[in-house]
Amino acid sequence: MTLDVKDKSLKEVLMVIPDPRKERGIRYKYFDLLLMAIYAILSGYGCSVDISYYVELNFEYFSNLLGLKRVPSHDTFSRIIRMTDFDYLSTTLEQWLAVHYPSIFKRFEGKKVLHVDGKCVHAAAEISNGENPIYLLNAMYEGGTISLYTKQIGEKENETGQIVNFLSGIDITDTIITIDAAGTTDPILNYICSRKGYYLVPVKKNQPQLFESITRHVEELENSGEFEELQRAEQSNRGHGRTEVIRTTMIKNTEFIFKELGLNSFYGSIARVGVMDKIVSQKIRGELQKTVKRTFLITNLEEISVANMQAIKLSHWNIEMEHWILDVQLNEDRDTSRKDNAIKNNTVLKRFCMHIKKKCGRDDLTLNKFFMGNMRTIESITEMLAAQVG
Length: 390
Description:
This protein is an alpha+beta fold.
């Protein structure tokens, strides 16, 4: 679905989304309700009850802007959010953002990097009644805010089985995909290669044969002294009496994998192996203690520097940081919406507002401070939404 949004205001674009309500008894324009919800979320009001309260606080403004005659109830906002077509909502807002707030992608080796990660929304399931937590698969290009494209994983599904289906909706050609260890499987990595994409993923004990093969080879290199001669990158951080060193060593010759495990599975596509050591030194009860955590990485990229391998792996934490913001500052993990498309549409609206904040806010302000500033003037939100909302 492609829309002509170049010269359209946000309100005009929202009008394209089909109204899911029956005509009888309608009091409010559908796109007006969506627009008021966006205003409220940008001011830190996330749930339907709070959105209705926000509109009441700013009734005069919305009356002048939209011709509003009365304050919509929280049931009204709840109903339109859960009934709205998720594909229309996410696609429409994504395309409007692409035109008015184009993303800037950080590239490595001339390629974009796409981080994929799953996120749990605990409150959206009645765990006490035996319901499983709801998971959402999300994606984020390095250098940009988390995508509006998301997929809800059902109770009888799992994250691993849904990643291929999730990636099918994204152009991953010539793109480096990072996923956690759940993505280091045959179907996922072979699919990425078939779409002319690239992967950089960790190897853990969910791939026992590969994990043991790499472990043995690294031990042999260390015992022979060859490991110290390989290309490596290192960075360190100090603070609060703690020193953290990240050191990544690249193994270019991956022939040992093919000899031990053959070319079946995704093993034949592995071009480089990375050994990332996280070394933490700190004083505990007056004594200096050191801990080392080792992670193995694999990639099908032949032309990649060890510095970029390390940077790309570390940048995967950025999507987890976005998830933290959604949970801690936008209260997504406490979202109790359960019916129809409520949980997916709520998360789309919150991600949309995160985009607006990133493009229009000050980099030195947290989201909480950003919201507090917006609460003082609703006019500033109109400016952020490209003004032409009327």
